[in-house]
């Protein structure tokens, strides 16, 4: 060991000897299971034009853009389309395999190739990020040949660190209004709607608080569902002190937890499978099924503890014109609330609300007045939503998915799913199978309707490549 190494070793020993020991009771070990990628540190040519940069720097730009869009909750086709457009500007060929949380990307430039894998630590929905990324891609197509590598990453830094539009209390209020509207559309009355409003609001507020603290995903879902259901029952108990026969309104308690129904991954899974992106589609479907299982099992446990049963709602007793008008209003409120939960701006949420109100009112009218099967009506409603979203998207420049998915989330049969799990829990197999099949049929027809509308109106999506 030479003199310099001896001095270094001595300095290390002295530093260790004088370092204060951590307090045993206060020490908390924190580590990341998914390490963040230091994008600015892995680049070699920060101040060089991106079109002239090395292949690895171009690959980092392309992969990061795809990852930001994937974090918004969009499907694999849109992620790959974004990466292809940026790659075209940078003069490389990209081949990407996209899943729910991971992108495997290979960039090819002549005889050279560079591969990398990037992943998210969780999944979620952020429609404003989808819009910002689409604006970013359009800007890159216009003047990407004038941007440096650093400029690309600075723009993506700004998008990544854009805060959410709504505080936890606002998200809770949005989910409260959406679930109350959902309960009315299912057949509930003022008491069910009021109790669901309070339960869903507090439940989703709790979920948002836990998600902001990075608690594990399914724990947040289970706790928020339990809170929503228990608060609903608490409100019902308080009302029983002043209102007679409140027990007849227990049927609406499932509406308090409908804010966790994973409409976005359910719909995008079907769209991905339609484009033969089976990896992404099946992963999204598995995630959606896992969320549904956790939520419905927690709701079933609460129901078993307090001896609740998923009975039908009492008749609303409204005339056809009044019912039509109230359904339109409730559909708008429900879709608007769900859009806010997806971080849509007010204008985007209002646009989705109008589209959803028209499509969902059409669906319910076809069932009641025409006698159409609910599954076929769901298909017709989804086609209507897709066609209207195409028209509004052309005028507003909103991402189509930020309009279509919220507008048909309200058609997802959350009540059917819960009833299926409830009857499985009490071993009434035939009833469970009936509700499972009903739910699956409607869920299958929703992305089919959107896919048909997309194929009719979008030539880029119509073809395989």
From TrEMBL:
Q: Which compartments is it annotated to reside in?
A: Cell membrane
Q: Which GO terms fall under biological process for this protein?
A: succinate transport
Query: Which part of the chain is the Threonine/Serine exporter ThrE domain?
Result: 328-453
Q: Which residues cross the membrane?
A: 166-186, 215-239, 251-273, 285-306, 318-338, 376-394, 401-423, 435-456
* Threonine/serine exporter-like N-terminal domain span: 61-304
Keyword check for Cell wall biogenesis/degradation:
no
The UniProt entry's GO CC annotations, sorted and at most eight, read: plasma membrane
| A GO molecular-function annotation | transmembrane transporter activity
Identify the keywords attached in UniProt to this record, alphabetized: Cell membrane, Membrane, Transmembrane, Transmembrane helix
List, alphabetically, the InterPro entries matched: ThrE-like_N, ThrE_2, ThrE_Dicarb/AminoAcid_Exp
Topology with regard to the membrane? Multi-pass membrane protein
Q: Does the keyword Membrane apply?
A: yes
The family annotation for this protein states: Belongs to the ThrE exporter (TC 2.A.79) family.
PANTHER family given for it? SUCCINATE TRANSPORTER SUBUNIT YJJP-RELATED, UPF0442 PROTEIN YJJB-RELATED
Q: What is this protein called?
A: Threonine/serine exporter family protein
Give the species this sequence originates from: Collinsella ihumii
């Amino acid at each position: 060991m030479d003199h310099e190494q001896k001095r270094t070793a001595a300095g290390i020993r002295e530093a260790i000897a004088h370092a204060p020991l951590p307090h045993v009771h206060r020490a908390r070990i924190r580590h990341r299971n998914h390490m963040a990628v230091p994008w600015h540190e892995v680049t070699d040519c920060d101040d060089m034009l991106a079109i002239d940069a090395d292949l690895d720097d171009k690959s980092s730009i392309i992969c990061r853009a795809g990852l930001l869009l994937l974090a918004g909750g969009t499907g694999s086709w849109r992620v790959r389309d974004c990466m292809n457009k940026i790659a075209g500007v940078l003069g490389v060929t990209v081949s990407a395999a996209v899943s729910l949380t991971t992108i495997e990307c290979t960039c090819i430039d002549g005889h050279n190739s560079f591969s990398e894998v990037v992943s998210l630590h969780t999944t979620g929905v952020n429609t404003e990020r989808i819009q910002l990324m689409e604006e970013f891609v359009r800007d890159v197509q216009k003047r990407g040949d004038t941007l440096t590598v650093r400029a690309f990453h600075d723009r993506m830094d700004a998008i990544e660190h854009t805060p959410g539009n709504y505080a936890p209390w606002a998200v809770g209020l949005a989910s409260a209004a959406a679930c109350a509207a959902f309960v009315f559309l299912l057949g509930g009355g003022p008491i069910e709607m009021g109790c669901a409003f309070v339960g869903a609001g507090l439940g989703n507020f709790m979920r948002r608080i836990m998600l902001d603290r990075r608690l594990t995903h399914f724990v947040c879902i289970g706790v928020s569902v339990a809170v929503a259901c228990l608060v609903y029952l608490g409100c019902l108990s308080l009302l029983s002190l002043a209102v007679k026969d409140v027990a007849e309104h227990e049927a609406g308690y499932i509406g308090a937890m409908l804010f966790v129904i994973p409409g976005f991954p359910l719909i995008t899974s079907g769209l991905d499978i339609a484009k033969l992106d089976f990896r992404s589609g099946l992963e999204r479907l598995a995630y959606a099924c896992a969320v549904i299982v956790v939520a419905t099992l927690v709701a079933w446990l609460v129901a078993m503890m307090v001896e609740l049963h998923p009975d039908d709602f009492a008749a609303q007793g409204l005339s056809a014109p009044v019912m039509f008008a109230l359904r339109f209003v409730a559909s708008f409120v429900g879709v608007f609330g769900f859009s806010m939960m997806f971080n849509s701006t007010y204008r985007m949420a209002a646009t989705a609300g109008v589209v959803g109100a028209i499509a969902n009112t059409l669906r319910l009218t076809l069932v009641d007045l025409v006698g159409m099967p609910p599954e076929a009506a769901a298909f017709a409603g989804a086609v209507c939503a897709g066609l209207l979203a195409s028209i509004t998207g052309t005028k507003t420049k909103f991402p189509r998915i930020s309009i279509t998915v919220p507008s048909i989330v309200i058609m997802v049969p959350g009540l059917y799913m819960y009833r299926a799990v409830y009857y499985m829990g009490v071993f009434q197999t035939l009833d469970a199978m009936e509700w499972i099949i009903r739910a699956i049929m409607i869920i299958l027809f929703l992305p089919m309707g959107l896919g048909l509308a997309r194929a009719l109106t979008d030539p880029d999506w119509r073809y395989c490549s």
